[in-house]
Amino acid sequence: MVIIIFFIAQWYLSIFAQTFLQHRYASHRSFTMNRFWERFFYVFAWIAQGATYMSPRAYAVMHRMHHAYADTPKDPHSPSNHKNLFAMMENTRKTYTACYWDNIEVEKRFKKDVPDWPWFDTWADSRIVKVLWILFYVAFYVFFATTPWLYLLLPVTILMNPAHAVFVNWYGHKIGYRNFELKNTSTNLYPFDIFFLGESYHNDHHRNPSSINMGVKWYEIDITYYIILLFSKIGIVKLAGSGEKLQHEKDLGLAESIVAPILQTKHEPGKVLA
Ligand SMILES: [Zn+2]
Ligand SMILES: [Zn+2]
User: Fold this and answer.
1) Which is nearest to 137 in space by CA: 56, 55, 47?
2) Which residues of 145-166 are buried (b: 16+ CB within 10 A; e: fewer)?
3) 48-57: buried (b, 16+ CB within 10 Å) or exposed (e) per residue?
4) In angstroms, rounded to a whole number, what is the distance separating the alpha carbons of residues 159 and 112?
5) How far is the CA of 209 from the centre of ligand 2 (A)?
6) Rounded distance from Cα 71 to ligand 1 centre (Å)
7) Cα 210 to ligand 2 centroid, rounded to whole Å
8) How far apart are CA 210 and CA 258, in angstroms?
9) Dist CA 134 CA 159 (whole Å)
10) CB-based contacts of 54: which residues, under 8 Å, 6+ apart?
11) How far is the CA of 21 from the centre of ligand 2 (A)?
12) Residue 202 CA, ligand 1 centroid: distance in Å
């Protein structure tokens, strides 16, 4: 029971950290935070994601490449470019590492306005810290597992962040349905989004990358959107205005939003963007 609770807690805290910090904040600047809260969520992401913590800076650079070049040979993770999801995972890992160490040629626009906390990332993303996390997970399972079957969860515990990412990036460009016909293969994965806190409304997201609400249809409930609204009410985040978001997307060249700038000005859940 302890293992199941730990697994569920880690699953949701990790995906929340990813969609809130690395994705909506660092990559898309959908909202802003002051330095204290930014760093608070860095530490939160590190605890939640453990062995697979990703630097928000490096993640943002790689993720912006995905949006700008989705499904083309320049896309770091598209099912169109890889024969299976493990090959795509490996290429994602390599691109992330290259972005992290800055030893890949990256267009300037992808590095614009990304949060950075170098010494924290150097430490949190280091091999030794990752190994210590894995030892902690193994010790935790050894101590609390009441049946050997529970060890089947251990590989997911160790690889939590990539497990989430590969589901969205592979299946969110392969199966599911589309609300918008775009120049890429992105799809939405409702009802599986109950496990992904908004991340799997991927076609909606490609259509409108800076929106804090990743769902569009009334039933596409994006739980993270409501958490961000709550954070905004109590002063943890400040929502970016539609003009700022549009400018940001223009700067980055995220094509879908430029074609039809219909960024939500009022944050109405269920409002269909057409
Ligand atoms: Zn995508
Ligand atoms: Zn995105």
Assistant:
1) 47
2) eeeeebeebbeebbbbbbbbbb
3) bbbbbbbbbb
4) 29
5) 5
6) 8
7) 8
8) 12
9) 9
10) 18, 22, 96, 125, 161
11) 12
12) 6
How far is ligand 2, taken at its centre, from the CA of residue 266, in Å?
Answer: 20
Q: Which ligand has an atom closest to residue 23 CA?
A: 2
Q: Are 69 and 151 in contact (CB under 8 A)?
A: no
* Interval between CA 173 and ligand 1 midpoint (Å): 6
The two tokens of residue 26 are 């660092």
Q: Token pair 């589901």 is at which residue? A: 167
The model's pLDDT over 176-232, given as tens digits with 9 standing for 90+, comes to 999 998 889 999 999 999 999 999 999 999 998 999 999 999 999 999 999 999 999
pTM of the predicted structure, to 2 decimals? 0.88
Residues near 163 by beta carbon (within 8 Å), at least 6 away in sequence: 156
Is residue 259 within 8 A of residue 274, CB to CB? The reply is: no
User: What is the per-residue pLDDT across 16-64, written as a single tens digit (0 to 9) for each?
Assistant: 999 999 999 999 999 999 999 999 999 999 999 999 999 999 999 999 9
Q: Would you kindly state where each structural domain of the chain is located, as residue ranges? A: 2-259
Give the distance (Å) from ligand 1 centre to CA of residue 150.
Answer: 32
Q: What is the rounded average pLDDT for all residues in the chain? A: 89
> How many Å apart are CA 181 and CA 187, to the nearest integer?
10
